[in-house]
Amino acid sequence: MKFSLRLKLILLSTILVTIIMASVTFFFTIREIESRRVDVENQVERIARNIATMQLVDRLDWSLYQNYITQLIAVDEDIIYIAIYDDHEYLRAHSLNLDLIELETNGSISIEKQEGIVQQLDAGAVAVESQDDLRTQIVNIQSGDRVLGSVHVGFSLIEINNHLRIDIIRNVSMALFFLVIFGTLSVIFSRRLSKPLEHLSAAMEEVKAGNLDQEVKIENRDEIGQLAANFNDMVNDLRERRIIEKLGQELSATFQLDRLAILIRERLRGVIGAKGAILFLRDRQDKDLYCEITPDESSDPPCTLTLDNHLQEMLLENPDGFILKSAPEELQEAFSNPKSQTSDLLIPMNIKNELFGMLVFEGHAEDNRVDRKRQHFASILANHAALALENSLLYDDLREQERMKHELAIARDVQQKLLPSEMPVLAGYELNSTCLPASEVGGDYYDIFHLDEDQVGIVIADVSGKGTSAAFYMAEIKGMMMSLVPIYQTPKSLLIELNQKLYRTMERHIFASMIYGILNIKTNRFNFSRAGHSSLIHFSADGHGDLITPSGIGLGLDSGRLFEQKLQEVEITLNPGDSLLLYTDGLSEAMNSNMEAYGEKRLIETVCAKNHLDVSAIRTHILQCVKDHVNGHDQSDDLTMVLVKCLEESAN
Q: Is residue 63, in this structure, part of any structural domain at all?
């Protein structure tokens, strides 16, 4: 069986009152009556002893006893009878107080009948209900060691017992009265004491069931009131934790900045109890500029705020924010726009000790008196929201990077298709090439194509810069070359025309360098022109390498006259075992961690050491030597080279 706290308090108070009243009855009534009873018994015992000592005067005259006890019983109202027996237990004298005896007949009673009544009383033959009212005190009549008889004095305890009964009834009545009084008071006080606990228990059951919208009214400042206050704080913490968890789930459901901004404004506005909310985020370019994130359907232009380092530090040092009315004057001036009012609450959004953004809650309070706990809670939610917003921006960056990466991968595939997929087969010659862009796409270009049965065009070019811009111009040069090759028969004439076209299309800060030559496989002659490109290296069969650098300036730098004046065409005759190396500056200028370039001298030595091998082995050897030189240092420029080798059987 389950007992409520109120019932326990009532039972406890009842038991306490009962114990108190029982103790009072025992100590102040029963003990007092018992003391009076002992006094009467002692008094009767003294009377009996006095009677017994009379025999010492004259034992032969029993009438002296009779006269004495007759007078004595008339004086002492508590004595019922006195009986004197001799040593043979023969009743010699007796006296009876008829006022204390209830007889069946009225009138006088004979001596013989009185004697019988005395003997009957002395034998204890009385009604059951009167046994507690009669006591007998017996004292022997002695002469030395000899017992001459005995004195029997019967006395009444009726008055004492009646007083006892009356006192007990009075005490019981008082106990019942006090029980009623204290019971009523205990009900009232137990109700007053247990009611807050009952409310607290009921609220805890609701919390256990998942209902956190509970608040216990604090009626007293005692321990129960403190318990209620602690309960309210606990429930408020649980409620805030649930809000944080729910907000986190909602924020993690999307990475779209607009949707996040709407969600953050509405959720935090509801938690704070504000009329509206304005979200400001720091501009990604200007770190002092904060821009309002407005809904798409909003017709109002977004606000912008400029906060210098001092104001940003001020907000970082006060993470719970300000009521604008109580904020420092310089901060009020920074927020002096039509959308801000003095009653607005400003909450900073901090990430990694930087002011990422701000939330301004509109119409939150009329004065400086504001719920600091709720303001602190708003700061916690704002920082959670800031993380979600930062993740959204990082996600946008990552998505943009992935998109660019995908587009660059497509561009790289397209660019690779613009380069020769395989080397043409030439009688008496070996050809090989490689192109390694520094990024996904590059600005280097090379091509080898047949002009007729005996002539092959070889071109290598380098557009200034790297990346997509250079790749775009490389594709443009590829298209122009394909359109000009059938028309112009010499390298110089083709480059003059190509320069004019590029000058009209290229931006002024962009230019391209190029070597274009024509190899005649019958005459073993190679005619080429150089438009500001790296030198061509001619390796002879006997192990020497020569840099050949005809004059010429880059494509797109001049409209045509100066370019044509500077451009020179050179002819080289190839002997069996000779090799040609066309390359971009990404090969000769490959840097190691000490910023030391590979250099053309080292390049010549590298090729001369392996010139007796086929061009594929020479290319592999060059790339390995360059790799060893840079020793893991990042590639800073596109690397392209074309190798041409005249074989023994090509002798004409």
A: yes
Range of the domain at 26: 5-163
pLDDT tens by residue, 104-148: 666 677 777 878 888 888 887 777 777 777 788 888 888 778 888
Residue % of the chain over a pLDDT of 90: 24
- Tell how strand 146-156 and strand 276-282 pair up: unpaired
> Does residue 361 sit in the same domain as residue 435?
no
Q: Note whether 74 and 125 are same-domain residues.
A: yes
Q: Are residues 260 and 353 in the same domain?
A: yes
Cα 242–Cα 245–Cα 247 angle in degrees, nearest 5: 105
Residues 373-390: pLDDT tens digits?
Answer: 778 888 888 888 888 888
Q: Give the C-alpha separation, 411 to 472, whole Å.
A: 9
**Structural domain includes residue 463:** yes
Q: Is residue 517 part of a domain?
A: yes
Q: Please, are residues 525 and 471 in contact by the beta-carbon 8 Å criterion? A: no
Kindly list the strands in the beta sheet with 455-463, ordered across the sheet, starting from the edge strand earlier in the chain. 444-450, 455-463, 512-520, 525-531, 569-573
Listed residues 132, 147, 163: the one ending a domain: 163
Q: Which residues contact 515 (CB under 8 A, 6 or more apart)?
A: 459, 460, 461, 528, 529, 530, 531, 533, 534, 536, 582
Between the CA atoms of 386, 388, 391 and 397, what dihedral angle is there, to the nearest 10 degrees?
A: -80
Place of tokens 């497509």: 410
Strand order in the sheet with 134-143: 91-96, 79-86, 146-156, 134-143
Q: What is the pLDDT of residues 174-233, one digit of tens each?
A: 777 777 777 777 777 766 666 776 676 777 777 777 776 777 777 677 777 777 777 777
Residue 235 to residue 214: CA distance in whole angstroms: 7
Residue 368's pLDDT is 41
* Total of domains in the chain: 3
The partner residues of 430 in beta bridges, in order of sequence, read 645
Which helix (DSSP H) or strand (DSSP E) does residue 66 occupy?
helix 63-75
Phi, psi (5° rounding) for residue 95? -150, 145
* Residues near 267 by beta carbon (within 8 Å), at least 6 away in sequence: 247, 250, 381
| pLDDT per position as a tens digit, 348-362 | 989 888 898 888 888
Q: Does residue 531 sit in helix, strand or coil?
A: strand
Boundary (domain end) residue, out of 130, 163, 196: 163
In this structure, what token pair is assigned to residue 141? 């009549």
Look at the block and give the residue holding tokens 């992935």.
Answer: 402
346 inside domain: yes
Outline where 419-516 has alpha helix (H): 467-484, 491-505
Q: What is the DSSP letter of 303?
A: P
Q: How far apart are CA 563 and CA 493, in angstroms?
A: 11
